[in-house]
Amino acid sequence: MDPVTHFCSGIVAKNFLTKKRGITTTLIFGLVSMSPDIDNFIGISGNPFLYLLHHRGFTHSFVGGFILAYILYIITKIIKYFDDNLLINFYILILIHILLDLFTNYGTQIFLPFSNSRVGLNAIFIIDPIYLVILIILYFTTKKRVFTISSFHPIFLTFILIFTYPVITLLIKTTYELKLKGNNPNTIVATAPFSPILWKIIEDKGDNYQMYLSYKPDEKLIYKKPDRKFYEILNRDENLKIFRWFLKYPYVNIKKDNNKTIYELADLRFEFPFRENPFVLKIIVENDNVSYLFRHYKKNL
């Protein structure tokens, strides 16, 4: 999810998890909710493959999330901010962040350090204005109330209110996908801008993928899958292995430019007809030379 949505989820949770209502508390709870995205700083390494590997990595896992919560808890003690159940509340905020990211198409490595498998439910687009409006309404309608029925009740109610919309979108997606699988069992329903109203449909056709938007079922686009020989190139370099690990629905475009053959490798999760795919790896073959380019990073094999 985007940073604004994560911040809003935190300040909604604040209204249930603490009796404090000041601006300092609001800012702390909002910023803690955003804190797992501190892994974005891996971008300063200059290697975009490391960003793919580590963004939504350890700080987005159950174990790493608790360590992050404990570090933030120590920092709040140093700055002399005190509240009841602060460590537990910080971990709850971070769990909310992790689980919200789980609903997106990018996926989250929630089981690190035991497994680096990327789990994504592909039910909410990374920017969802409907959900953001719901969170803002929830914040203003609950900020003056204090929930003190029991220690369990506020936590339970927080998760219900924050995750009702994501769960509903997942149910809509699953129902729609099951319906389409009746005609083609290899059909995947994925998020698009303005999901859950609009969806992206991916059909596995063996050597190709066929993709279309739910409101334009007759405008189908064909995407070629990489062959085994192409994957052999990816296995020749550690960065390329990371990119292969990142892919879920890979496709490749092949272009000829004089003596060069340019392979553009990307993932249908991030493909939309009206915008450029943000994750495109270019592999350039010229005579006996092979190089690759991803964003600003270039290397010869």
From TrEMBL:
<keyword id="KW-0812">Transmembrane</keyword>
<feature type="transmembrane region" description="Helical">
    <location>
        <begin position="57"/>
        <end position="75"/>
    </location>
</feature>
<feature type="transmembrane region" description="Helical">
    <location>
        <begin position="119"/>
        <end position="140"/>
    </location>
</feature>
<dbReference type="InterPro" id="IPR053170">
    <property type="entry name" value="Transcription_regulator"/>
</dbReference>
<dbReference type="InterPro" id="IPR007404">
    <property type="entry name" value="YdjM-like"/>
</dbReference>
<feature type="transmembrane region" description="Helical">
    <location>
        <begin position="87"/>
        <end position="107"/>
    </location>
</feature>
<feature type="transmembrane region" description="Helical">
    <location>
        <begin position="152"/>
        <end position="172"/>
    </location>
</feature>
<keyword id="KW-1133">Transmembrane helix</keyword>
<protein>
    <submittedName>
        <fullName>Membrane-bound metal-dependent hydrolase</fullName>
    </submittedName>
</protein>
<dbReference type="Pfam" id="PF04307">
    <property type="entry name" value="YdjM"/>
</dbReference>
<keyword id="KW-0378">Hydrolase</keyword>
<dbReference type="GO" id="GO:0016787">
    <property type="term" value="F:hydrolase activity"/>
</dbReference>
<keyword id="KW-0472">Membrane</keyword>
